[in-house]
Write a structure and sequence with these properties.
alpha/beta, nine-stranded mixed sheet, Endonuclease, Chain A, 22% strand, 36% helix, eight-stranded mixed sheet, polyphosphate kinase like
Amino acid sequence: MTRNPVHSDRFINRELSWLAFNHRVLQEAARTDNPLIERVRFLGIFSNNMDEFFRVRVANLQRALLVDESSVTTLGFGVQQTLEAVTNRVVQLQGEYNEAYERVEQALEEEGIRILNEEQLSGEQEEFVSNYFKQQIRPHLVPIMITVDRPFPDLKDGVLYFVVGLETQNGSKVDKDYALVQIPPHRPRFVILPSPQENRSVAFVDDVIRKELHKIFQLFQPDRLYAHAIKVTRDAEIDMDDDLSMSLMDKMADGVSQRKNGDFVRMIYDRDMPAAMLDLVMKKLDLGAGENVISGTRYHNRKDLMKFPDFGRSDLVFPKQESRKHSQFQGKSSMLNQVAKRDVLLHYPYHNFGQVVDALREAAIDPSVERICINLYRVAQNSKIINALVNAAYNGKDVQVVIELAARFDERHNIKISNVLQEAGIQVEFGVTGLKVHSKMFLIDRRVNGELQRIGYIGTGNFHEEMARVFSDFGLFTAQPKLTGEIAKLFSFFSNNYERPEFECLIVSPYQTRLTFLQLLEKETEHARKGFPARVILKLNNLIDADMIEALYAASGEGVRIDLIVRGICSLIPGVKGMSENIRVRSLLGRYLEHSRILYFENNGAPKYFLSSADWMKRNLDHRIEVSVPIEDIQLQSVLAQFLDHQLKDNVHARKIDVHFSNSFIQPKKGSKSVNASELTQQIYAEPQD
C-alpha cells in the first residue's frame, strides 16, 4: 500500500508544507488590498522562492533517489512519492501564479502602466528600443550556433537563454539553423519606454532583444527568425571532499565554482516553443521527459519582478514607515554608556538597524574599547558593518571576526569579505569544524576606570542592513556580566574549540538547545498535571524536528495550551483529538517577513522568555552553533508579551495552518475589529516610551 505523500498520522510532509508557505506568498500577490506594485513584487518573491526550492530541496531528494530508490525522508515519507506530489503541487501553483500575473497586469493597465512586447511599440518607442539595444545590450550578446556535432554550451544556473530558430527557404526545402543567446544577467530586466504624459510603458529586456534580434543574425539572411526562452536550475549543493591539504577557504571557493556545473533539477521552457526545437534542447541537455521539464510562459526568471519600477507612484507601494531610534538612545552621545545602564531591546524594522552600525562605529573610535568580536552569517553587499570593523582595526582595536563561509548562496560574498577583513589585519576565523555558526552576536570589551566592561549583542537576524528593512527581527543589547561573560566564552571557543565551555545563562546548540527546551516543555506538562495554568507560545520560522513535535503532542495531551506562530514549514498536525487538540498553529505573512524566533513558557506564574537564532529543525538543534538568550527584564518581557499577543490576535495577515494546506485567512469574529499586528506594532513604537 502506497503511503500518503502529504501527511502521515503524526507529521506533515516538509516539502509540501514549504510549498504551502510559498502559496501564502502568492496569496499576498492576489490580495487587492495590497498596493499594486507590491503585488507585482510578491510575484517576484514567489518565483525567487521557487527557484531556491528546486536548487536545494528538490535537488536533495533527487540525490537521495540516486543512492536508494526506496529512500525515505527523516519524517518517514517516501522520496519518490514526495517528488511526485511536489511536481503535482508545483503545476497547480504555477497555474495560480499565471492567473495572478494576468490579473495584476490588467490592474496595471487600469492604472496607466502597460507592459509592452515587441509587437506593441509605437514608432517613437521602436526608435528608443533600437538605440537602447545598440548601446546597452548588443555589446553583451554572444550568439552560439547549435550544430549536431558541437556540444551544447554549459548553461548557467538561473540565467535566461533564447533558443533562436532561423529558417531559410531553399527551393521547396526549408533549411533550419539554431542558435543560443544568453540574455545578459547583469543588465536591468525592465526597460522604461518613452510614453505619453498620462501613461507609463515598460518592456522586458527579453522583448527588446526580440525586436532587434535580426541585427545579430543578418549574416544568415533568414526568411523567418524566432526565439523562445529557456532556463535551467541546477543542484546548489556544495560537496566538500576530505582533502585536508586544501584550506577551508580553498574548498569553499572550489565548491562555489563547481556549482554552475551541478546537475539539472529543472528546466523551464516557453510552452509555445516548436516541438522540434524543444526536442533538440532536451537531447543536447540529456534530459528525459520526466525530469522536471516544465512548460512555462513567454517570460521566465520572474523573480526580477521584485525590482519592478514604481514609476514614482507612491500610491501603488506600501506607505513609507519611519524606522525609529530607540528612546533610550535618543539625544545621547554614547550608545555604549546607555547599554551599560540598562538592557536595550531593538525591534527591526520598526527600530532603525543603523543603531547596530552606530554602536560598532562608536566602538571603533572609542579610546576605551580594546577588543571587538563578532560572528557573521550574511552581510549586505556594501556592508557598513564591515566598514566599521575595518575602521576599528585601523584604529588599533583587536578585532575578531568569525565568518560562516558555508552560508548557502552567500559563499562567494563571504569569501570576498573574508579577504577584505584579513587585508585590514583582522583576525578572521571560520568557526567550528563540522558545525555551521548561525548565531548572531557581537561583544565589545572596553576599559572603564581601570575595570573591564563588556557590551554584548544577541539577535535573531543577520547583520544585514538591507534585510533589516524588510525582515522583522529582535536584537538585545546587554551589559549583564553573566550574559557577556558567556558570549566571551563562546568567542573563545571559536578560537580554541577543543574544549567546550559550560553555559548557565545562554542556551547554545548543539549542546543544550534541544535538552533545555524539552525540559521546559516537560515542566509545563507537570504544571498541567497538577492543575496549574500551563501555556507555551512559540514563534518560529520552521518546525520540523520529530522529537520536538512529539514533545509538543505529549504536552498537549496533558492539557498544556500551545500556540504556534510558524512562518514557513510546519510538520506538526494541529487539532487532532487525543494528540494535538490543545495546539493551534497560525502563520503571518504580510509587508514584513516575520523572521524573529521567540519562545514563551508560562512556568506557573514566573514566565520565561527567550530570543533565539534557532528554529526547531534538526540542523539548528544538532548541527549548528545557535544561541538562545533569556529575557529576564520585566519591562522587556512586557514588550515581547505585547508583540506575541498582537500576533495571536491578527486577523488581517494570519492564516490557519492545517493538514489540508488550505491557508485560509483567520477572519474577524462578527462584530469585532480587524487586527493588523504589523500596524499595531508600528503604532506602539511611534508612541513615546519610557
